[in-house]
Amino acid sequence: MQKIRNLKTLFNIQSGNGPGDEHSLLLEIGKDYCCYALWDSASHSIDSLQFISFTELEGEDSLAQIVAAIPKHNFQTVFVCSAFAQSLLIPSKYFNDSYEALDIIYDQPSQVYKHDRIPEWQIVNIYSLPAAIHTVLENSYSSIQYRHVYTPALKVYNGYVADNQMTVHFTPQHFRVLLKKDTAVQLAQTYFYTTPLDVIYYLLKICYEFELEQSSVYIILSGLVEKNSSLYFELHQYFANVHFAHPPEITLPENEYPHYFFTSLYNLATCVSSVEV
Predict the structure, then answer these.
(1) Dist. CA 94–CA 126, nearest whole Å
(2) Per-residue pLDDT tens for 82-130?
(3) What's the rounded Cα separation, in Å, for the pair 218 and 235?
(4) Which of 154, 152, 163 is nearest to 241 (CA)?
(5) CA triplet 78, 79, 80: central angle to 5 degrees?
(6) CB atoms < 10 A from the CB of 36, how many?
(7) For the chain, how far is it from start to end, CA to CA, in angstroms?
């Protein structure tokens, strides 16, 4: 296989335990990254975790190379979480197995369409992922269950009871926002950014559009944001309540990274565990 440029392993956390009969594979794939973990639902622990970034235009080839490097094993289940931006939240009563709205809004060619039901919020998350990515996954694994990344974030309680809150999760070049206002989900969107002020601009615009006070809305951070970064500093200049996601009740091999780097995978593990029980 041709070597893929700009394929970079950001994190590689290992317990030393190879995949066993009890393990499922958790895999999250977005435009510019892929992270995966060996998940033991019985012990509520992750035995292996890798996070790899790549160039957007090389997603299909990058995923093929990443999948080829994952230890070969007959996993109990493979849970794939799409982090592509193509997603819409629709009230359950209006969902009729149609995905036309996705095509109208996102206009992406060669897509595979799926949906997640979220009864806790009485909504359905309809989404799509590139057909080429879907083909790589289907040719690599059997027994795949799909989710969209917004779904676990909505289904798993984040520990904060504030009526108005924005959960903001960062990946290498994007960040996704889930807005809850007055106990209702108002927004789920993914944005591209290059500077901290790009992030500030979008969050301020969301506050303006949804009539949120900067002094009272909770900003809950997770993903690739450092406490000593300029991004974290800028957020504190504009918002009074900036918090990091709570630690999960999940065991990860000892490592030097803050727990909130991996909140998205923790949410997926928690979400699928509740289904398996």
Answers:
(1) 12
(2) 999 999 999 999 999 999 999 999 999 999 999 999 999 999 999 999 9
(3) 11
(4) 163
(5) 110
(6) 24
(7) 40
CA–CA separation, 8 vs 121, rounded Å? Answer: 37
| Longest Cα separation, the chain | 53
Is 111 within 8 Å of 129 (Cβ atoms)? Answer: yes
Whether the Cβ atoms of residue 52 and residue 8 lie closer than 8 Å to each other: yes
156 is written with which tokens? 């798993």
- Alpha-carbon distance 113 to 84, whole Å? 12
Alpha-carbon distance 262 to 186, whole Å?
Answer: 24
Cα torsion 133, 269, 33, 18 to 10°: value is -90
Residue range 116-170, pLDDT digits in tens: 999 999 999 999 999 999 999 999 998 899 999 999 999 999 889 899 999 999 9
Q: What are phi and psi of 274, to 5 degrees?
A: -65, -25
